[in-house]
Amino acid sequence: MTSDNKRRVGDQPWVRRSLISLALILTMTFLVIPIVVIFAQAMSAGWSTFAGNILNEYTLHAIGLTLFVALLTVPLNLVFGTALAWSVTRFKFPGRKLLITLIDIPFAVSPVVAGLLYLLLYGRNGWLGGWLSTHDLQLMFAWPGIVMVTVFVTCPFVARELIPLMQQQGSDEEEAGVVLGASGWRIFRKITLPNIKWALIYGVVLTNARAVGEFGAVSVVSGNVRGQTNTLPLHVELLYQDYNIVGAFASASLLAAIAILTLVAKALVEWRQAKSENSALEKGDV
Amino acid sequence: MSITIEKIHKTFGQFQALKDVSLEIPEGKLTALLGPSGSGKTTLLRIIAGLESADTGRVFFGGDDVSKLHVRDRNIGFVFQHYALFRHLTVAQNIAFGLESLPRKQRPSKQEIAERVEKLLEMIQLPQLADRYPAQLSGGQKQRVALARALATQPRILLLDEPFGALDAKVRKDLRRWLRALHDEYHFTSIFVTHDQEEALELSDQVVVMSQGKVEQVNSPTELYARPDSRFVFDFLGHVNVFSGVIKNQKLVQGDAWVSLPGARGDQEAQLYLRPHEVQLSRSPSANARLPLRIESISLIGSEVRIELAPQGWQATELWETGMSHTEFALQNPTRGELWYAVPNVGHIFVGDSHQPRTVNWNYQDAANASNM
């Protein structure tokens, strides 16, 4: 066996075995079993109850709102993340390092705090709230607020994927493009984009997963109005507080399904990324 | 198209990369920008290309001021140090990129582009690799593709940044010869950056030696090697043997060692620079010099035997080096550890702080002395 061949002289087999079993046990208890339980609970009252719970008017609305928010958030952050990564890797300007650090604020700040900050700024009694309400613009306790905090929470994902890659690739190819007379747009489309394609898709997958699942920040600014400002994660909590356990788990199973799909997509993208990097080597040289 | 560079200054933060550089690059010639790293040669090349902007100063292409012209519109060919091939495009697509980027009015038809690419592939002798991706090519092949890509739009100026830096010795020699032949056939004006003096001297028509952001000397390779006009150029171009001492009684003296300097006036410090081929070895001191050296190593590979020697009873910062023909080597049979004497034929002396050397020819003096007697 190759693994046996690779073992170093004097290494204890029991160390290896116990570490591997520990990892497996922890993964099962903390990750796999809970997910299985979600689906089991959702189905515990039979398929028709499950379908009934999902097709419930409020649940459908929550699904719709959640998808709508993700649909707005992902393209916004795609553009924002790409522009940001481009500017910090292709230009040198004062404050560049600071900007790279600032990107991580949404990761460092608790989502609830982020929600409260937006409330403080844009809420009725907030600093901009007065001006907004005189112009009849309601951002908080409505879908625009949900989109705003979701954008805030998910904005680092794309940029964080792109920055190290673009730094490593350097700007040589783009310089070669411009010397050959290509326009900025042509350089981006023909040279930059193909080079960052897989990292970009990976960033989008992560952004989407987080946008769909965000709870803390959204719960602060949404107002939890059933059938109006309730996203899927908030809906799960509402149902749970209503003692509708099976309904809560049915909705939760949807979120879990999205998570699993995300994992599959992520694995696929990683596999493609590795393949596109190694393809040349695999095909071999003559 | 000739290139004129007028009073270029460039700073990066605190670092002054180029100081008042003015230069004439003749049309149709292959010019080398030679210098150690940090001498500003790559910055100058990038300013000519328009990839970098000068703080002050101007660049002219054939009389037209292009200082404000965008790199996109300068119509130059540029070969990057690490090739910068587009990794997601095939070799053929890489070469076609410049043609496809032309404005619609000037752009050739698809078929014409395909034909041009095919011709270029033949020119670089790689027609069978049209559908390969850059990662599947060797270093030398990548370099050729980069050249074909740069030449596709038929620029009249070709700029190359350390074109052979990343290649191994054998491939480098082949490519150098190939580039020279290509240049002689197409006659574009080319500038290439290099830190390799051998490469600069072998390949170019004109060498620009740069150091610390300034142009030290501009000359043809032969002139440059024969008549360096500063210590820097001397040190930088090939090996040089240095004997430093004090002038006393028409001699340059250090300890027991000395070299005669007829006509030299006394009590000044001076350095004598001697190329390896300007020194011969003898088992006894000559009338003109007493420079004892011990043989440190002997290298037999090459058209000449190369001998490295350590000064005995005097000091030099680097080992001395000289050559000997294989025939003479067989005759004299020098061996490691033996004591020999260096006999200079021609040397270049820098007196005091002067930057300009004076050339001394002892053979000529011998002849003159002989005729006087």
Structure description:
The complex is a heterodimer of chains A (286) and B (373). Chain A is mainly alpha-helical and 286 residues long. Chain A contains 15 helices and no strands. In chain A, helix 2 crosses helix 15, helix 7 packs parallel to helix 13 (216-222) and helix 9 packs antiparallel against helix 13. The longest helix of chain A has 39 residues, at 245-283. Chain A starts with a helix and ends with a helix. Mean pLDDT of chain A is 88; it is low at 280-286. Chain B has 373 residues and is an alpha+beta fold. Helix content of chain B is 27%, strand content 34%. Chain B has helices at 41-49, 91-100, 110-123, 139-151, 169-186, 197-203, 221-226, 231-236, 326-332, 362-372, and strands at 3-12, 15-25, 30-34, 56-61, 64-65, 76-79, 157-161, 189-194, 206-211, 214-219, 241-248, 251-254, 257-260, 269-274, 279-282, 289-290, 292-299, 304-311, 320-325, 339-344, 346-351, 358-361. Chain B has a 7-stranded antiparallel β-sheet. Chain B is elongated. The A-B interface holds A 172-173, 175-183, 186, 190-191, 194-195, 279-281, 283, 285 and B 49, 51, 71-73, 75-78, 80, 82, 84-89, 97-98, 101-102, 133-138, 149-150, 152-153.
Determine the strand fraction of chain B and express it as a percent band.
25-35%
Query: How do the helices and strands follow one another from N- to C-terminus of chain A?
Result: HHHHHHHHHHHHHHH
Rg measurement of chain A, Å: 24 Å
Question: Which chain pair has the greatest contact?
Answer: A-B, 21 and 31 residues
Unreliable residue runs of chain A: 280-286
Proportion in helices of chain A: over 70%
- Average pLDDT score of chain A: 88
Based on CA inertia axes, which overall geometry of chain A fits? Answer: globular
Low-confidence stretches of chain B: 367-373
Helix content range of the residues of chain B, please?
25-40%
| Largest sheet features of chain A | none
Individual helix count of chain A: 15
Helix/strand structural class of chain A? mainly alpha
Give the structural class of chain B.
Answer: alpha+beta
How confident is the prediction overall: mean pLDDT of chain B? 89
Main sheet of chain B? 7 strands, antiparallel
Q: How many E strands of chain A?
A: 0
